[in-house]
């Protein structure tokens, strides 16, 4: 299966050679995950104000069941990234590591009997439905249902509210099993 791929260049002319390199790297992603829905790569040319080398920034966003794996590679200390091809190589290497981690979580290789309590922020609700999504501090989007919200507080939650969530891997990706607004449910406070 060929991964649907979008390539964008910002602040620079499109480079056929660089786009070919990106396509090669994206095709290799299937070795690490067979459930990739889409991949979007952005290569951004540096602003031309620096006295030293101008470094390229590369963002790789991979849509997979249960979320999105995103890598933004723009290390200001890595002067090898004055070469866009090197910046692409390094961004894809980091994306592979994150993709492997994601696949391990989905396949159950990560302990699930020890759900993690994370801090996050409510990002959206699905209109007319009894569920929404939280963006955790580690950047994951986590599904939550009305029944997971402590003390029947679903209707009091608003987009932007900070919450603590107990997160476990569900059939379709990360899912909050308990959601508690920050500041509620603490002894003595």
Automatic annotation (TrEMBL):
Domain CSD residues, every copy: 117-181
Pfam family, one: Ribosomal_S30AE
SMART domains to which the protein is assigned, alphabetical: CSP (SM00357)
UniProt GO cellular component terms: cytosol
GO MF annotations, alphabetized: nucleic acid binding
Origin superkingdom: Bacteria
Protein name: HPF/RaiA family ribosome-associated protein
Species assigned in the record: Neoroseomonas oryzicola
């Amino acid at each position: 299966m060929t991964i649907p791929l979008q390539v964008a260049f910002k602040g620079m002319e499109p480079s056929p050679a660089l786009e070919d390199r990106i396509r090669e790297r994206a095709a290799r992603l299937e070795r690490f995950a067979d459930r990739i829905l889409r991949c979007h790569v952005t290569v951004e040319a540096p602003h031309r104000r620096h006295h030293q080398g101008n470094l390229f920034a590369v963002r790789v966003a991979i849509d997979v069941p249960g979320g999105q794996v995103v890598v933004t590679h723009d290390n200001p200390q890595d002067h090898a990234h004055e070469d866009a091809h090197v910046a692409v190589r390094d961004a894809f290497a980091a994306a592979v590591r994150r993709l492997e981690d994601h696949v391990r979580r989905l396949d159950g290789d990560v302990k699930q009997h020890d759900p993690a309590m994370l801090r996050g922020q409510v990002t959206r609700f699905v209109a007319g439905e009894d569920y929404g999504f939280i963006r955790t501090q580690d950047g994951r989007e986590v599904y939550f249902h009305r029944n997971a919200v402590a003390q029947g507080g679903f209707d009091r939650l608003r987009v932007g509210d900070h919450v603590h969530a107990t997160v476990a891997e569900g059939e379709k990706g990360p899912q909050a099993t308990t959601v508690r607004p920050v500041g509620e449910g603490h002894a003595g406070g």
